[in-house]
Amino acid sequence: MDSWDVLAQATDLARRGESFALATVVWRQGPSSSQQGSRAIITAAGELHGWIGGACAEPVVIREARDVIARGAARLLLLGNPDQFGAAVPDGMAVVPISCQSEGALEVYIEPVIPAPSLVVVGRSPMAHKLAELARAVGWRADLIAGEDFTSAAASTSSMVVVATQGHGDEEMVEQAVAARPAYVGLVGSRKRGAAVLGYLADRGVPQDQLDRVRVPAGLDLGPTTHQEIAVAILAELVQVRASGALTAAAAMAGATAAGAAAGPAQAIDPVCGMTVDAGPASYPLEHEGSTYYFCMAGCRRSFEQDPAAYLKESRC
């Protein structure tokens, strides 16, 4: 997959609403298998698509990219031997050792790609149509679903759901909505109506922690107003939710869950060069005094075999 293919796949992931990180090599010092401008996509589950470097760079970039996705903040990495750079490293740039033998180095910019907010509006009223229309106007993804067609499968943990069925099956729709555990659940209706709906669901055994998350009435309190203005008030509250970071946190939690489900081998630290490596058979495992150590390459393993005490003493300091 070349750099242009990576960008095409990034566009596809963004359209599907998946969070990921885009890593780009902005500088290199040979010898290095990567080239300036090389790109790769890293998913929240730790899958890498593209090319960012060889066995030394790849696990470090994956680890850092997953943290970038979780935090929602970009990061600039300098991968190499810290002794190569001395005091020349700019503030804010992280230096990560990537090899014990090569003198190559990489500068990699990793940026999170968080998809546009996803809103699910349940109902067919004029207000429901206006809310979906306004959300799309500000660049959000908005699905308008009739009450009889709505199920929890239509939402996710990073979605926002507004139930606007206005008395037509409110109870069933809220029960379906909270089951998806979205980042936001709002019910359009009065406080009295909301209390009746939530009380009914509590009696049906819906967990209280799920019901406590339902915002009713949905939206900022504007008092008696038109359906167009109610839609504006609800969207304003949803913008507050997004600005608070709740959606990013929900997406990160979902990514962490996916990562756990798709987790590969555990990770370990190479005691010779300090690299993070997979704790698996491909990482040159070596048994020493009842413990198993893993290495980025055969050279590190040989160095450790020649003088284990020196490296174990270093790692304990």
Task: Tell me what you see in this structure.
- With 317 residues, the chain is an alpha/beta fold.
- It folds into 3 domains: 15-113, no CATH class; 118-246, NAD(P)-binding Rossmann-like Domain (Rossmann fold, 3-Layer(aba) Sandwich), CATH 3.40.50; 267-316, Ribosomal Protein L24e, Chain: T (Roll).
- It is 37% helix and 21% strand.
- The chain is built from 10 helices and 15 strands.
- It has helices at 3-15, 57-71, 126-137, 170-179, 191-203, 208-211, 227-243, 246-261, 298-306, 308-316, and strands at 20-29, 39-43, 48-50, 75-79, 94-96, 105-113, 118-122, 141-145, 159-163, 184-187, 214-215, 267-269, 276-278, 286-288, 291-293.
- The protein is elongated, with a radius of gyration of 25 Å.
Topology:
Elements lengths: L2 H13 L4 E10 L9 E5 L4 E3 L6 H15 L3 E5 L14 E3 L8 E9 L4 E5 L3 H12 L3 E5 L13 E5 L6 H10 L4 E4 L3 H13 L4 H4 L2 E2 L11 H17 L2 H16 L5 E3 L6 E3 L7 E3 L2 E3 L4 H9 L1 H9 L1
Parallel strand pairs: 4-5, 7-8, 7-9, 9-10, 10-11
Antiparallel strand pairs: 1-2, 1-6, 2-3, 4-6, 12-13, 14-15
Helix pairs in contact: 3-7, 4-5, 9-10
